[in-house]
# Entry
Amino acid sequence: MDIKDVEKLAELARIELSAPEKESMLHDMKGILDYVKVIESVEVEDILPDYKLHNVWREDKHIPREFSHDSIIEQFPDSQDGFLKVKKIL
# Structure
């Protein structure tokens, strides 16, 4: 990774970076990539997970509900002429 890569990333992100910020970003990106290399080097093939996976899905059930214009108006705190009254929103 070099300055050109940082400049391309800044262009894609539509941010402007000064020269010191580009150098700082380059230093940070190199540190991140070095850390990723360390993580990639860890051998995990023979390690068994400490947890059990299980299916949490369930079948969808249709629950019929009775909704009518009148039942909604009866439950609403304030109505007038068949309409629901709400506070003014600006």
Remarks:
- The longest strand covers residues 79-80.
- The longest helix spans residues 19-40.
